[in-house]
Amino acid sequence: MTRAPRPAHRPAAVIFDMDGLMLDTERLAPRAWVDAAAALGVEFDLALTQPMVGRNFRDCQAIIATHYGDDFPTVELMRAWHVAYDAIVAREGIALKPGLLDLLEWLEAEGIPKAVATSTRRDRALAKLELTSLAPRFVALVGGDEVARGKPAPDIFLAAAQRLGEPAPRCLVLEDSEPGVRAALAAGMTPIMVPDLHAPSADLAALTPLVLASLAEVAAHLAPLPRVP
Predict the structure, then answer these.
(1) In terms of Cα–Cα distance, which of 94, 91, 96 is closest to 124?
(2) Which among 207, 156, 199, 206 has a CA at the least distance from the CA of 50?
(3) Residue-wise pLDDT tens digits, 44-94
């Protein structure tokens, strides 16, 4: 893969990841795995949570099954994880990442349409976006269960671009995870990475994607750029 492109113009459209990028939810996931494993009386290696970041339900299930083997109750654990995760959200709510609302307001003032492309299943993603009052602010939502292949394959971002009515090269992708950045590059889009729990790997850093510390920096980076031709 060649080096990642840097934004040269304001984008025609912006595609947002959700968990870890807009919603401060990735920190909840390990807690939910601990609770789910305790409920089933099994062990769970928290080291598995890192490769699962940015992945869809099917891929996460495969990661667990590969690690523990066929005799492990992977399906039951995944179900218990959702129950435990939802219980944490019900108790504590969902916090927005710093700078998100200001960025959304800037994009809306500039007339730049937005979509969400998340590895989370559509129904669960929509519930989170409605809970945080974000759903009406996006033109489209593509969930991880709506495409054949999850990130780092490009399918989800290509589907989002299609729903936005924009060709891939005119779309900017905002991502916190390595699979998401690689999916954006595979789709022919320009990514900006805003890391959450994990810094870019050495392999990803070698592609020199634009990495910003928070969403608060995204609008400041885009505003001086010329409008897309």
Answers:
(1) 94
(2) 199
(3) 999 999 898 888 888 899 999 999 998 999 999 999 999 999 999 999 999
**Token pair of 133 as six digits:** 């009052």
Other beta carbons within 10 angstroms of residue 197's beta carbon come to 14
Instruction: Look up residue 17 and give its amino acid.
Output: D
**What are the Cα distances from residue 209, in Å, to 54, 75, 101, 204, 222?**
17, 36, 24, 8, 15
More confidently predicted of 19 and 55: 19
Final residue belonging to a domain, choices 65, 92, 119: 92
Radius of gyration of the chain (CA): 17
Residue 39 burial (C-beta neighbours within 10 Å; 0-12, 13-18, 19+): middle
Distance between first and last Cα of the chain: 26
Contact between residue 170 and residue 187 where contact means Cβ atoms under 8 Å apart? no
**CATH code of residue 134:** 3.40.50.1000
Positions annotated as catalytic residues are 17, 19
Query: Which amino acid, residue 147?
Result: V
